[in-house]
Amino acid sequence: MRSGTRSNRLLLLIVLTALSLVGVSAVTAGPADLILHNGTVITIDSETADGEAVAVRGNRILAVGSNEEVLALAAEHTERIDLAGRVVIPGFIEGHGHFLGLGEARMILDLQGARSFAAMVEQVAGAVTEAAPGEWIVGRGWHQERWSDEPGPLFDGVPSHHALSAASPDNPVLLVHASGHASFANAAALAIAGIDRETPDPEGGTIVRDAEGEPTGFLRQAAQAAVRQARQQAEAALSEDEREARFRRQVALAGEEALTHGVTGFHDQGLTFAEIDRLIALAEAGQLPIRLHVAVRAEPNEVMDERLPEYRLINHGDGFLTVRAVKRHIDGALGTHGAWLLAPYADKPETSGLPQLAMDELEQTARIALRHGFQLNTHAIGDRGNREALDIYGRIFEEAGGNGDLRWRIEHAQNLHPDEVPRFAAMGVIASMQGIHATSDGPWVPQRLGVDRARERAYVWRSLLDAGARICNGTDVPVEPISPLASYHASVSRMMANGQRFFPEQAMDRLEALKSYTINCAYAAFDEDRLGSIRPGKLADLVVLDENLLEVDEGRLPELKVEMTIVDGEVRYRRTDD
């Protein structure tokens, strides 16, 4: 026994000495549980140099350094992973997405690949053969700008519902636009929702109609609400056990997709109190697959004012769930002519967009968020929407005596008048943008804005960075696929599918783009002391890539692969395919 005790003390002394050599504090002292070695470690950290290896103890980074230094921290139980030249980076943080929507997208029709309205109809017809009469058929991901030429007549660029209704006469159909800001419904769904030629357009929405005044099935912005509510009423017939099982499947599928793409943290934009209740239960049971930072959404101001204090959670469930933000929509999407512009659309001059709420209501939300210590995340795409949001932020900050490190955010910030660009940095407002949107939308953005306005105002990352603003990157999944590597490539290349670059002078450099997906998003969620870089003492959320995204030829960036995803010190994904 005495000999064993002396041996243990000797081992501890050796480990502590080794730790001191690589600059690890005593609070994390002890042998490593996991070592990744023989590769490149990109720390993205001002205090920690890049290295060849990284050690993990428990759920924390233990050390970064040379192979020799880090392997000295191994004990008998230590798992050693030979990187064989591969690259370790901080875990990607999805800065703007919809976690349950990602899971649901795996459970419904995927329309992202549809290149015509007829292709959508064909997918629906296939689903009808497997559906019970009256069962809702739901899909998401279509975008009319991706379609080939459609046979007429077209109404706002989309055919009428007749072919879709013929393919699904007994099943209501709801097909959500890629942006989420429009939907297409068949006759059965329109009937259930009570939408006919006499139905007026709701405030903030448009029921697109044909030449005779009949609804075409294309529902823009707030006009979707009636059909979506009809579908929700159908789901209300599910038992509590069925709803819980469906929720858990959404979480599992979303987590699987996120981990496969190297996403270890996710800013969800956002959920109702009822949905958050279910997430809290999973977090407390240790069953969340990745870290979630959730914004409260779709709750009235008076309800939030009463209930926000009980939902303010910071690193709940062993650090996997934070609820400290409120999400609001000031406008819609550019693709559906819903983004709120300072001047009319170039291709639809009768409109400048569709604001989604009154500005005094948004200002009331801002005061509620400030009062209860919540961030405010405002969806603003058009230049008018961004200006209005920043004006409200400015008034609130002035009344509060400054922004006080509130880190309020503008979600998307896609079209900015030059006067608004410096305001982001001056006010400390986070530009929560999505690199992939620029290259996905790029082919048709000049149609909406005109070439000059598009060049000056659309997706102006370089202008924001040069002004000193902080960009948090993402994909808006399921609007776009969750792949950070695809969005990273878009951020540095601005390369569109047509082989042209979308105003490349606005591109980020590679390190800026990587920071926008790691430390910047950690900062945007008040998490920079725990996440976003590889530093001893920080949480061990790591990603292993097959090659170095800072050095590989630009054209090969889309081909990079996530080899491994580590969350909280645990390997939760390993690539097994060739």
Structure described in brief:
This protein is α/β, with parallel strands linked by helices.
Report the CATH superfamily of the largest domain. Metal-dependent hydrolases
Strand order of the largest sheet: 7-14-15-17-18-19-20-21
Task: Predict the CATH topology of the largest domain.
Answer: TIM Barrel
Overall shape: globular
Average pLDDT, all residues: 93
Number of domains: 3
Helix content: 25-40%
- How many beta-strand elements? 24
Beginning-to-end CA distance, first to last residue: 50 Å
Oligomer: single chain
Low-confidence stretches: 1-28
Helix/strand-derived category reads: alpha/beta
What CATH architecture of the largest domain would you give? Alpha-Beta Barrel
List the helices and strands and how they pair.
Blueprint: H1 2-21, E1 32-37, E2 40-41, E3 53-57, E4 60-65, H2 67-71, E5 74-82, E6 87-90, E7 92-97, H3 99-105, E8 109-110, H4 117-128, E9 137-142, H5 162-167, E10 173-177, E11 182-185, H6 187-193, E12 205-209, E13 215-221, H7 225-235, H8 240-260, E14 263-271, H9 273-284, E15 291-296, H10 301-311, E16 313-315, H11 316-319, E17 321-329, H12 359-371, E18 375-380, H13 383-399, E19 409-412, H14 421-427, E20 430-432, H15 435-441, H16 445-449, H17 451-457, H18 461-466, E21 471-472, H19 484-493, H20 510-516, H21 519-524, E22 542-545, E23 562-567, E24 570-574
Parallel strand pairs: 1-5, 2-6, 7-14, 8-9, 9-10, 14-15, 15-17, 17-18, 18-19, 19-20, 20-21
Antiparallel strand pairs: 1-3, 3-4, 6-22, 10-11, 11-13, 12-13, 22-23, 23-24
